[in-house]
Specification:
By secondary structure, the protein is α+β, with helices and mostly antiparallel strands. 30% of the residues lie in helices and 30% in strands. The strands form two sheets. It has a two-stranded antiparallel ribbon. It has a two-stranded antiparallel sheet with strand order 3-4.
Length: 74
């Protein structure tokens, strides 16, 4: 993630997942904290939402824009 647009895009992608109740995305830390109902969704579904939005996931953290997928900034 490189800008506020990136954090917004990741936030929207995670909020769109059924069962998510709260999302906090930190640009300086390059991570997202997500509160969700484990009966309605899973970590794998959250990871997939972030990846579909064009971002990578490392060690459970939203960490970097996937090269070649564009992300928000190019």
């Amino acid at each position: 993630m490189t800008c506020g647009g990136c954090t917004s895009k990741v936030t929207r992608a995670l909020e769109a997942v059924s069962g998510v109740s709260d999302v906090k995305v930190s640009l300086p830390k390059g991570e997202a904290t997500v509160e969700f109902d484990e009966k309605m969704t899973s970590s794998a579904q959250l990871k997939s939402a972030v990846q579909t939005a064009g971002y990578g996931v490392e060690r459970g953290k939203t960490a970097r824009r996937d090269q070649g997928k564009g992300g928000c900034c190019g």
